[in-house]
């Protein structure tokens, strides 16, 4: 088996896989929430190394993928305006809006800049007081504290030409929505490790309890993922449904208290639309009323958007684990990472891109490919 | 952007009333805000996400992760030239096919 040699510690990987194989007695399906985990799973062939009766369902944990088309269109509209410096993380450049992307806006003369951190955008604002600097704040709980701090500092330093287009999403309401869906096949969750580095694990016991579902906080390196799966399988086989922390080197139960306090100051929770999925109650953050002046949607009047999703794209079903990417008719033909129709093909963390990049054009797994030898 | 990369704190200073660090990610050195991990010291490792240190990490785990990221090209994705990446992607995508 070719993949196992690529693990950092192949011997440990084999032990974990053996332990999983010994424990499992029936079919189980579990969802990895984080797109980084999906990427790692497909890249290292973890799903194929597992016993055939364990199915991994890829979750919605890619912020680039779930940012609603309408928000992308707003970003494109603002970025096209004269006098605006539009700052974004690099992975938003090629996310398709209704009729173009940020890369194209830049080509057409828009002042779009890639920054490593939202603090870089704030610095640009202070250096160019005659320009309106807008930062595109997307991401899960791992990213939100950075955006919150940029807003906090802008207010503290009284920077008036800086605002944020905010579209943050939260994991627990997404888990809740997935469990409540009548089509739900998920029996356990591998929770996103770095989200929990910030938020801690205290939001999860109620979810595990209500839905009788094991939740294992998991890192995203191959061995971390195997360990997460091993613990989830053990719980499932024993009929347990607890929150376990399989990533203690980066996750403390209480998370990062300083980050949490700034998050609560700058943001309030709000209903948020997820691209392809629809609106999930309370699943996002927006700037709180005290930060209204820093809200780009408030500062810029945006009208006349005609948001249009490509009809063929089934990324919503992919994001909810209802279909695998290659079951979409456009996969690998009309839709590739170079010609993406949906965000799940743009982002490296997107399930469609991960499948495209690392092999999976048509192959459903077979018992043969699942062997570790 | 989704990545959180471990790095080693090589210098700390205060800027505009905020603790900032120079952090070494296996050769690439970046400015990192320490507002959320103010007690970290030079020589320690932290998990860094979009310019913010979010948790401490032990050296062994940090180095193992960095090696892995380097091998799979993730560091280049995180710190490389995003415009060049986007241009390379766009290049072979003729306009009509873009939608
Ligand atoms: S393959 Fe492309 S069109 Fe199909 S679901 Fe994925 S992103 Fe959408």
Automatic annotation (TrEMBL), chain A:
Belongs to the HypD family. One of its GO terms (molecular function) is iron ion binding. Pfam families: HypD. GO terms for biological process: protein maturation. NCBIfam families: hypD. InterPro entries: Hyd_form_HypD, HypD_1, HypD_2_sf. This is Hydrogenase formation protein HypD.
TrEMBL record, chain B:
GO terms for biological process: protein maturation. PROSITE patterns: HUPF_HYPC. GO terms for molecular function: carbon dioxide binding; iron ion binding. Coiled coil: none annotated. PANTHER family: HYDROGENASE MATURATION FACTOR HYBG (PTHR35177:SF2). Belongs to the HupF/HypC family. This is Ni/Fe hydrogenase formation protein.
């Amino acid at each position: 088996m070719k993949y196992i040699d690529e693990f950092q510690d192949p011997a440990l990987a084999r032990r974990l896989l053996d332990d999983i194989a010994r424990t499992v007695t029936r079919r189980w399906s579990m969802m990895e929430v984080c797109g980084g985990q999906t990427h790692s799973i497909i890249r290292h062939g973890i799903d194929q190394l597992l016993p055939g009766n364990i199915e991994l369902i890829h979750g919605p944990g890619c912020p680039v993928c779930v940012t609603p088309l309408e928000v992308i269109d707003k970003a494109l509209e603002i970025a096209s305006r004269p006098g605006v410096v539009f700052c974004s993380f690099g992975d938003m450049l090629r996310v398709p809006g209704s009729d173009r992307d940020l890369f194209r806006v830049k080509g057409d003369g828009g002042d779009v800049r890639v920054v490593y951190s939202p603090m870089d955008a704030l610095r640009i604002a202070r250096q160019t007081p005659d320009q309106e600097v807008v930062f595109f704040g997307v991401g899960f709980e791992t990213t939100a504290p950075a955006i919150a701090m940029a807003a906090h500092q802008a207010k503290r330093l009284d920077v008036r030409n800086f605002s944020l287009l905010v579209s943050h999403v939260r994991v627990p309401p997404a888990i809740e929505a997935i469990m409540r869906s009548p089509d739900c096949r998920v029996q356990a969750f591998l929770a996103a490790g770095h989200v929990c580095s910030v938020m801690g694990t205290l939001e999860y016991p109620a979810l595990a309890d209500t839905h009788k579902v094991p939740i294992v906080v998991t890192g995203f390196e191959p061995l971390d993922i195997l360990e997460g799966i091993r613990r989830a399988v053990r719980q499932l086989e024993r009929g347990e449904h607890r929150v376990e922390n399989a990533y203690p080197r980066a996750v403390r139960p209480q998370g990062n208290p300083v980050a949490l306090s700034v998050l609560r100051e700058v943001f309030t929770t709000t209903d948020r639309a997820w691209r392809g999925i629809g609106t999930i109650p309370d699943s996002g953050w927006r700037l709180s009323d005290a930060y209204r002046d820093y809200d780009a949607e408030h500062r810029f009047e945006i009208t006349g958007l005609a948001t249009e999703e490509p009809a063929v794209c089934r990324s919503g079903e992919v994001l909810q684990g209802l279909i695998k990417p290659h079951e979409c008719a456009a996969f690998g033909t009309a839709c590739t990472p170079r010609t993406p129709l949906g965000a799940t093909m743009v982002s490296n963390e997107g399930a469609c891109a991960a499948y495209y990049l690392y092999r999976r054009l048509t192959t459903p797994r077979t018992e043969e490919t699942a062997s570790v030898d | 952007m989704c990545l959180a990369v471990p790095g080693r704190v090589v210098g700390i200073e205060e800027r505009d009333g905020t603790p900032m660090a120079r952090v070494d990610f296996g050769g690439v050195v970046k400015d990192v805000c320490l507002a959320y991990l103010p007690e970290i010291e030079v020589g320690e490792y932290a998990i860094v996400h979009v310019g913010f240190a979010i948790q401490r990490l032990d050296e062994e785990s940090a180095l193992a992760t960095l090696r892995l990221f380097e091998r799979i090209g993730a560091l280049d994705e995180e710190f490389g030239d995003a415009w060049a990446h986007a241009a390379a992607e766009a290049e072979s995508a003729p306009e009509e096919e873009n939608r």
